[in-house]
Amino acid sequence: MPLHPPLWLHRQQAGLALAEACIEQLDMGPDSLLLALPRGGVAVAAAMATRLNLPLATWSVRKIADPAWPELAIGAVAAHGVVVWRHDDAALWRAQAAQRQGWLADQQRELERRRRLFGDPDDGQLRHRHLIVVDDGVATGMTVKAALLSLRGLEPASLTLAVPVMDRSLAQDLQQLVDHLVVLALVDDLRAVGIWYRHFEQLSDGQVLALLSQPLGDLEEARASRSRSEGLR
Q1: For 82, which DSSP code?
Q2: Where do the domains of the chain lie?
Q3: How many CB atoms lie within 10 A of CB 186?
Q4: Percent of the chain with pLDDT over 70
Q5: How confident is the model at residue 87 (pLDDT cuts 50, 70, 90)?
Q6: Which residue has the higher pLDDT, 129 or 224?
Q7: With bands split at pLDDT 50, 70 and 90, how would you rate the model's confidence at 205?
Q8: Is residue 158 a contact partner of residue 130, using CB atoms and an 8 Å limit?
Q9: Confidence of residue 91 (pLDDT cuts 50, 70, 90)
Q10: Of 47, 54, 72, whose CA–CA distance to 136 is shortest?
């Protein structure tokens, strides 16, 4: 049956549905960790954290765009110097322009600001953990790809990408970067993630910090709580 937007009222509803899909498809133990891509992915992952009783943290990544066309992503930058560029005929020109005009440097500075503000985990906190990367949707795939490449180098026990909606053409490429891919809706020609939500407001830094400060925001406390839950089954 064809899918028609919107599918969810808001990111929280999508997050609860995504949590149920993760329960069905993944074997989540006490070493599992939800890693949300700020800002929109945090609202999805916060709902998942409550349902799954898993800790929540952020993994910041930044889109690179020409200021004249801010909605058109030409690349993305993530931690550990990872940079990816759009793969089309203009990719080389765009990469050169981003470096020459300072767009890349601007986003690298913003990336570091967000990593400090949101408290992205240190590498050692992620090594040998089962990482579940969460965003509110994947249209071009560049920010998600940058995040996954930066995390893969940290030697996680496993790497999962979980999103409510994704452009169908990206699924095969992203599947190669992860151990598990959980998607609620694969759609053709996904031009805008927001149309799949009835309410899709942009989140502020303050709203992200408020979501992260919820009870399951503490990594070690949530990990211990889940361990206790597993022991009672």
Answers
A1: E
A2: 11-60+121-225
A3: 16
A4: 89
A5: confident
A6: 129
A7: very high
A8: yes
A9: low
A10: 47
- DSSP string for residues in 83-123: EEE--STTHHHHHHHHHHHTHHHHHHHHHHHHHHHHTPPPH
Confidence at residue 19, expressed as pLDDT on a 0 to 100 scale: 98
Options 3.40.1000.70, 3.30.360.10, 3.90.190.20, 3.40.50.2020; which CATH number does 11-60+121-225 get?
3.40.50.2020
Structure tokens at 61: 């990544």
Count, residues in the chain: 233
- What is the 3-state composition of the chain as percent helix, strand, coil, each rounded to the nearest 5? 45, 20, 35
Closest CA to 189 of 62, 9, 2, 15: 2
- DSSP 8-state assignment for residue 72: S
